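Incident review: delayed structure delivery

Summary: a single-chain prediction request sat in the queue longer than the usual turnaround. Root cause was a stuck worker, restarted by the on-call engineer. No data loss occurred. The affected request and its eventual output are reproduced below so the record is complete for anyone auditing the incident later.

Affected input:
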Amino acid sequence: MANSNLVSVMGRNEEKAKDFARRHNVPHWTSNADDILNNNKINAVYIATPPSSHLKYALQALEAGKHVYLEKPMALNADEAKQICHALKNSSSKLTMAHYRRNYPLL
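Output delivered after worker restart:
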């Protein structure tokens, strides 16, 4: 996107995160999400982790003042989704759901 830079990637597998960063010229990589969530130079995050951790990372990101691009499904159940919505209402951040097929033609 215009006026945006990918400055860090995180992966649970350190070698895969390092390799991705190298191949895509990303200046920083980590295997610890806190390194990204606590970095004041990062203002937005893409959460593409397994759905079981969406709630945790979305709440942490919103608490840290990050904008969130959250992969689907948003959460494991309605209660978790409501928790994310509540955190969003009490935040100045924005959250959007990822949907990579949004521009695909209808069949």
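Verification: Helices lie at 14-23, 33-37, 54-63, 78-89.
Action items: add queue-age alerting; document worker restart procedure.
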